[in-house]
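Next comes this protein:
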Amino acid sequence: MPDKKYNFALISFILVLILPFFINLIFNHPTFDDFYYSEKARHFGYFDAQMKWYKYWTGKFFSTAVLSISPLYFRSFVGYDILVFLVNVMTPIVIYKLLSQITGAILTTSEKSLVTVSVYFMFLCSMPALAQGFYWLTGIFVYLVPILLTMLFFICYSKLSAAVGKSKRFTLIFIATIILVAITGSSEIAMVFIASLFVSFLLLKFKMKGKIDLYDIVFCSAIILGSYIIISAPGNDLRSETFPMKNDFLHSVILSATELAKNTLLWMFKTPLIPVTFLLMPIMSRLIRRFSDVPQFLKLHPLYYVITFLFVMSACTFAPVWSTGLVPFKRTQNVVSFFFVAGFMFLTFVFYFRSASSKKLIPDKFIKLSFIPVITILILLGFTKNNVRSSFADLITGTAYQYDIQMKQRYDYIRKNDSELIEVNDIKNIPRTFYFTDITTDKNFDLNIWYAQYFGKKSIALKKTDNP
């Protein structure tokens, strides 16, 4: 009973901190590339648009294919809001499903729920570009969906070992293969992430079992195929011409190592990762005591997992620097932040298992001290700049609400105006957690053109002001 009360109290506490992120979704609106994908698909036709993007802009064949038929293609803002909400709410659901697949019945529902909300909460806290990874549909499909698909892949992979019958195994292999191609086709960073992660996984599997299976070769082939498609896109060459410092190895090594070190320190000490992980220690202890036999993955020396962790982190930080010569865009590091959070908690569990203290019955005693990490979390969130604080501020101050009102007033004005040439007021006080790029005073600016096409007007531009 004390364990259930402990879990329920902490789940409730964390959900309160997560809630503003979802409430603010009510006030969110599409912007920039959201219109670009839908309008290009309507203008050129769906399939022709895919070819044009591939030839002249990007090799992200999966994300562009999906975004081309977003709700905006069907002129639905409501559909846009629903889709953004559904993908975001799917994240903790998939985390829970993966955890359930891995642990089976060893953990109770409340224990798995606490781990799930803890991982998800820390992901929201550590996300470098919350606005582009939580509220922006384009960013969601390019950077968040690959994370979900990666977890779904490993759920399918885990089920393969227990699958009975050729038909079921073939179905799982087929689904997992399609998922891998979709991941690599989402973005370059997703491609690097799944490739480095799966290669590391196979090396660990070979270390434990002394073999790899035939379907592993199939999965590697799927990753290679998807990677080849995205890398060989002619559009990549055209875009890369804007990055003169690209493909400088020494520069990329130094800059990526520096950024990885900065991000590691940031995620470790400027987010509540350590106290949140500390709150999960009782569950880790219970899990270890419930093992009838030591799982094979825990027989490996922790150093193997540390090397894997550092390799995947380094690869995902190095790749964007190599391709641009610049500091990685924050939105690309959303993928890295999720892996860091999950990896840190997993490594904590592995090292805790190896320690002598893991055999002690500590949960009941620990519960009495749970107020310490809770207070630490509140202090960190209250007195440092972070996503949770910004989310609460946007909600409580009414900034998100006022932004929503302004946007709806603009839409209403455009729709009711019979003129084909429209000028609108700019939007004031943009919420800190939202991603927003407005149209300009230049009616020929790309976003202005997409905006006008969406609303069925010849041109839409901001009103010019006398201010310099």
User: Anything to note?
Assistant: The first strand starts at residue 421 and ends at 424.
